[in-house]
Amino acid sequence: MNEKTVRQSRVIVSQVMLPEDANPAGNVHGGTIMKLIDNAAGVVAVRHSRCNCVTASVDQIDFHHPAFIGDLLMIKASLNLVGKTSMEIGARVESENLLTGETRHIASAYLTFVALDSHSKPLAVPGLIFETDKEKQRNCAAQVRRKNRLEAKNMHETNCSLK
Fold first, then answer.
1. How many CB atoms lie within 10 A of CB 111?
2. What's domain 4-160's architecture?
3. Is the pTM value of this prediction over 0.70?
């Protein structure tokens, strides 16, 4: 299985926000943005692994600014870390007011996807090649997040197990 570069699976998904995406005040629902993030990250996972992938977790999502009806939302997603069967994908959401050209950073998220075989069992994925310092930096931060996730999971299982 050949390694792949971050660039080979990176995506930018764009969509204009319509009235059905928002509340009566014109603010886009957080859930709508979350769905777009999950979709973009899923495309990255499938492009890298070339197999079915499912969301295993959303590690973190931070909303920075609202988005509004008429805004163009752009979700930029790329791989930060690849394990044996799992992949961490970072997503950055930006909005553009199409009338003024103003852009804003709306949200950021980290998601973990797992590749599955035809029997819905975890499947090994290709390794990841980093070409830029920014990609290496994102990988380093992703390794810290992975370590923290595993420690939190182990602590939860230890503290919540029936004795």
1. 26
2. Roll (3.10)
3. yes
Transcribe 47-80 into DSSP letters.
HHHSS-EEEEEEEEEEE-S--BTTEEEEEEEEEE
Amino acid at 48: H
Cα gap 50→44, rounded to integer Å: 10
Distance CA 72, CA 10 (A): 19
pLDDT digits (tens, 9 = 90+) for 57-101: 998 899 999 999 999 999 999 999 999 999 999 999 999 999 999
User: Residue 50 — left, alpha, or beta (φ > 0 → left; ψ -120 to 50 → alpha)?
Assistant: left
pLDDT at 45 over 80: yes
Q: Is the dihedral of CA 115, 151, 92, 21 positive or negative?
A: positive
Residue with token string 């804003």: 104
Whether the CB-CB separation of 70 and 16 falls below 8 Å is answered with: yes
CA 2 to chain centre: 23
Q: Does residue 163 register a pLDDT over 70?
A: no
150 backbone dihedrals φ, ψ, rounded to 5°: -65, -40
Give the domain ranges of the chain.
4-160
Residue for token digits 């797992």? 114
Of 4, 82, 74, the C-alpha closest to 39 is 74
